[in-house]
Structures are given as C-alpha cells and as structure tokens.
Amino acid sequence: MKKRVKVIAVLLCTAIVFLTGCKGKGDSGTVSVQGEGQEKSGSKQQESSMENENNTSEVTIGFTSEGDSFDPCTGFGYTGSPIYSTLVKVNGDDQLENDLATEYKVSEDALTWTFKIRDDVKFTNGEALRASDVTFTFNTTKEKATYMDLTMLESCTALDDTTVEFKLSKPCVTFIYTVAQMGIVPENAYSDQFGLEADQIIGSGPYKMVQWDKGQQFILEANEDYYGEQPEIKRAVVLIQTEEDVRLVAAQSGEVDISLTSATLANTEIDGMHVEEVESVDNRGITLPTVPDQGKVTEDGYKIGNNITCDVNVRKALCYGIDREQIISEALNGYAAPAYSECDGMPWWNEEDVIETDVDYAIELLEESGWTDTDGDGIREKNGEKLAFNLMYFAGDSMRQAVAMSVANQAKENMGFDITVEGVSADDTIKRMFSEPMIMGWGSDSPMTSYMLYHSSNAGKTDFYNPEFYTSEKTDEYLDKAMNSLSIEDSYEWWQKAQWDGETGTSMKGEAPWAYYVNMTHLYYVRDGLDIGKQRIHAHGQAWPLIANLAEWTWAE
Q1: Mean pLDDT to the nearest integer, 297-303
Q2: Which domains, from first to last, does the chain contain?
Q3: Residue range 384-402, pLDDT digits in tens
Q4: How many other β-carbons are positioned within 10 Å of the β-carbon of residue 538?
Q5: Beta strands of 302-396 (E only): which ranges?
Q6: Model pTM greater than 0.90?
Q7: Which of 448, 452, 11 is nearest to 440 (CA)?
Q8: Residue 541 pLDDT
Q9: C-alpha–C-alpha distance, residues 247 and 33, integer Å
Q10: What is the mean pLDDT of the chain?
C-alpha cells in the first residue's frame, strides 16, 4: 500500500549556506538487495507491531547518520530539529509562525529587526531562556563562521530579558530564513564541548537528548518542561544505519517503525508497512561552465573554463534535448518530478522557467553554432573538436550515477554528444568543477540560494555554488534589488526576473548555467498506524527534515 503525502505550500525556513546540498550527504543510492532481504518480514515484524499496539508512546527510526555535533552554532538543525527552539519556525503548511518569538518588526530601512520573545521558556537543564541567550547564540555563530553566513549581521543585542535587536550592515530580505533555522543555545551552559555528548546537548524544544551512542543510536525523550503542547510520542530511538540495504532489512524484520529508503528499493513490499512519498526541492542537474578555457586558474590553481559548454547553445541543447520523464522512469523508478530551476513551486519561482522536451529545437541550436557530424560517426564536431566532455558525479552515489548515465545516453542518441560519465572524489570534484560539468544537487527552499548560485560575487568559490563562473550584470542587478527589498513579498518580482525577464536570465530559456532535470521524491517505509504528521516540503537530506515535526507524530488507537 502506498500513501502519498502531498506538500504543496512553500517552505520558508532554510540556511543561507548549504554545503551538504551539493556534496550528496543523505542521498539514497541504488543498492540492490538479493535473496533473503527481498522476502516479506515474518514473526519479528508482527511481534513489533503488536508491541506498538500496546505502546503508542514510542517509535524507532532508521536514520542515515547523526553527524559529528549537535551544536546549532556550527550548523546543526538547519533543516529543522525537535531538540532546539527557534525564534520563528515553519509549520506543516510550510508557513512561518512564531516559536520563541511573540512578535517581531522590521524598520523602514530594513536594517533593524526587533523580536519580542516568550518569558515562560526553560532549557532542558532547568535554566530560563532569556534574550541574552538569543544574542549569545547569534554572536557565537557569527564568531565561529563555520557554516551559517551571518556576515550581514552588524550586532545582536538584548534590550531586556524578552527583547532582541538585530542590526544589519545592509538590507537582507532573506535574514528571516536564517532566524527560522537558528536553534537557541544556553549561554551559561555553552562550552567547546557543547553538542558533542548527550549531556552537552541542551535545548528548549519538545524533545531532549538522553543518550547518544555515537555511530549506533541516539535516544530522544519528550521535554516535560516544553512550553508548547506535549507530544504523544514520548520516546524516539534513532538507529544509525548508513547503508540502505541495512535499513531495508531492519524494516522487514520489524526492528524499526520508519526508515528512509530509495527509489530502487521502494517497490519492495513489506507486510505491515507502506511507503510514504514526500515532495522535495532536492534537485539534480548539471553545472555547465560558462566561460572558455583561456589558460586561467582559480586562486587555488584549479583550471577555469570549458570550450564546449561555454557555448550557450550547447548548454540550452542539454536543457531542451533531454526527456526528464525518461530519466525519472529509467533511473529513479518513477520517484521524482521534473525540475526546471533551483526553486520550482516557490513563491519566488518564475513559472516561465518550464520548458518542454524539444529535440528538434536542441539540434537547431547546435547547428546554429556550427556543431555538425561531418565524419558520420554519430558525434558532432566543430573546427575539428568533438562535442564531448566528462560528466562528473560523486563516486559511490549510485543515484547520481544513474541520472548521469541517462543524460549521457539521451544526449548521444538525441543530439550527437559524446559524454563520458565519471565518478570522482569530493577532493577531485573541487579541483575540476570549474572546468568540467558535474551532476550537482541542491535542496534549499530559500531565495538566498538563487543569490548564491548566480550572483557574480560567488563565481569561482570552492563552496559549490557558482563553479560555472556565471556572471551577468543584469542578473546581478535583479538579485541585488531582491536582497534590498523591504519585504519578502516585494522581493519576489526581482527573483523571478533574475530567472527570466522575457529576454535573458538564469533559466534554461536564457543563459542556462545549469541544466535542471529532476526533483527527488523522499521515500520512507512507515509502519501502518503511524502518522508522521503533515510534512513540509523537504530540502536536501532526508533524515532531519523528516523528524523536524516529531512532536506531531501519533499512533492510531
């Protein structure tokens, strides 16, 4: 039985920096499980189901990894966490609502943000949460400068116990997204060891960490002092199962009540469980270097430019000449949706980004640029240079490999490309991504991602955002106007124009520094009777977004 979770509203809560969005952490591979692993579960699973019927306050979760630290000041919780409270949060309708904050206002020049916070909140160590803890959290995070981009934050001050004032050096309309994903830590209990052991994980969310056996499991229990409604799930045992075949066997044996799975394995039937599908903006596409190889290198000495993909018609051909539905069918078992930009479906998305597969148009573009098959070998060439390049993916990520192979095969058959698919290490990727295309993934649902991907100030940095060296004065103009808007609603027009203004833009109709292909569907085996609440649209990474709303989970009576 399949149960589909429909998520149609917009998430307004993501980090400004998403290195995990490109590195593939949390991706599902396409591991094949043979023999016993394919059998339906037996008595153990049935026994577990009976236990759950009698104990509706516990749940066991199959997780991918726990990470190295649970410290929000170094990046933990950017996709949501039941351990820490935030000033504002995202609800199941993907709308911002107050959490610690009771109200907030923004000055007319958009440089001063003032938040009033609750006066009834305690950390799990029993200490009251005050405005000074909020300021400490943000100032510490800025000082550490490890993950969150707070360069626009000039100062953060506690005006009194319940009032926090942020001063920005420049207008930043996306600042609210950073606020929404910044878990608050206690100043008096914070140290260099914070977040590294169970007793050093102190928040004010609906759950508290009571045990952490690193690499094996961690256990959450309901926070009895939580200021909100008490959750029905009182205890969650989270098992660390990095291999997806291990998670499948755990689901089959009844060891877990919910477990992340992949497009390849999701068709395996398990008695007493069903697959839930959660929509995402976790996309896969190809970065396409936009500048030629002129012998230039980055500050780190890495080669810049590609003489094939610097041709805008080549880039657009790779957008129009590839059938996205075919990728979804042959590489992803149907568990994905076509992708057309970095922000499909978001309020700042330009619906004109949508394109139809048009192989004839793709061929027309290539021939317009002089790419023809003169020697009859099926591969086009121009001035003696073949229409050929390497397409990188992260080695070991079989899902990205499958997407890359589908693209390469279609590009050859439909248009006469010669694309060599190559799995490479993260280190090699950084060295080569400024001159060679690669399968990239992003999962941010904040407009800040558009700025990071396409603003010229980010070209050529080793943070995976703009390895294509895409620059455009017009795009910069639109992106700057978006960032300087006085409200998020006012900014939508400029984000959309940056994508496509009718003549040019970052979209595949325009300058096409990316060829976007699919938005992944996040898949979970869920025990019948377990309701995982209304899941917001998922960003990249399938574990923490899932349990961000753990306090809303329930067992059927």
Answers
A1: 93
A2: 2-70+196-281+524-555 (3.40.190.10), 72-180 (3.90.76.10), 283-519 (3.10.105.10)
A3: 999 999 999 999 888 899 9
A4: 27
A5: 336-338, 381-382, 385-386, 388-394
A6: no
A7: 452
A8: 63
A9: 11
A10: 88
